[in-house]
Amino acid sequence: MDLLPAQEAAKIYHTNYVRNSRAIGVMWAVFTICFVIITMVVFIQPYWIGDSVNTPQAGYFGLFHYCIGNALTSELTCKGSVLDFASIPSPAFRTAMFFVGTSMLLIVGTMVCFSLFFFCNAGNVYKICAWMQLASAVLMVMGCMIYPDGWDSPEVKRMCGQRTDKYSLGNCTVRWAYILAIISILDALLLALLSFTLGNRQDKLLPDDFEVEGAENS
Q: Which element (helix H / strand E) includes 104?
């Protein structure tokens, strides 16, 4: 039986709707994988703050690993390990490491959730991923806000000068990893928004007219 014009239009609309949703979903998945790499780099790299031409010592600090120059030999002495909390120079750095690390694990978990598309409703999977990405953004915000609270530690002051204090870097400068962490907050929020949108679109893949008229002809 030939399709009625309204049914045919609804079918074309539905086909385009599904195609567009899948294309946006693939784009979202690719950006999520890129975001996983970004958060790993932010967590691992020790370039959150660093020296400048006016600092007493050369060096740089990350969330847990840091290096400070020796005034006599000019060689960098590096310390700090993610597995050794005692080696991290400030409680604020440890707290920031926990929040940023948890944020990274949530984003990695989002990528693992891709496998759920084969077993569960796509709309529900998108919404689960959206909440995980939103939580990741919140944790990253907390990590970025708490990190400067540790700038008054003796090790940071040795590199940046005695004018250094909480939320005041003295002669030191903010490095690229800290800036990337701040940018990643916006990335996570945009990915969460897109994921929520895709989840809601999945609930509307079949237009009402197509469903009703299709049922009448069956």
A: helix 91-112
